[in-house]
Structures are given as structure tokens and as C-alpha cells.
Design a protein that fits this description.
The protein has two helices and two strands. It is an alpha+beta fold. Strands 1-2 form a two-stranded antiparallel sheet.
């Protein structure tokens, strides 16, 4: 099982929702052209600006790959 994070505009009030890992892996394999990164991403506790920048960087990279 995986947890999906649902966020509202501005990353406010994130909510977790559990999804089936088999379903996710099947969908991911159908749209992913390259293997996912295997390196973990570490975010420091109590550093909200650093965390925000890292998430923004990940989303910007994803957006560029989709365009």
C-alpha cells in the first residue's frame, strides 16, 4: 500500500489517502518512459522553507518532463 498526498492550493492542509500499490505500479509503468529515481529524498525536520524548495524543485522537474 502507498500513501497519496492530497494538497490544496499553496500546499495547505495536506491529507493522506492510501492507494493500492499494484494499481499504482501498473499505471506508473504505462506512463513512465524512464525508471524512477532510486535515491531517497531526505528533508530536514523543522526547515519548512528548505522543504518547500525541494518539493517545488521536484514538481518543476516533473512539469518540464511532461511538456
Amino acid at each position: 500500500m502507498y500513501d497519496k498526498v492530497i494538497v490544496e492550493e499553496g500546499l495547505k492542509h495536506p491529507q493522506l489517502e492510501t492507494i493500492d500499490s499494484d494499481w499504482f505500479e501498473e499505471i506508473w509503468a504505462s506512463v513512465c518512459l524512464e525508471p524512477p529515481a532510486t535515491d531517497p529524498i531526505f528533508i530536514q525536520k523543522n526547515h519548512p522553507y528548505t522543504e518547500y524548495k525541494k518539493v517545488k524543485e521536484i514538481l518543476n522537474t516533473a512539469q518540464k518532463k511532461l511538456n
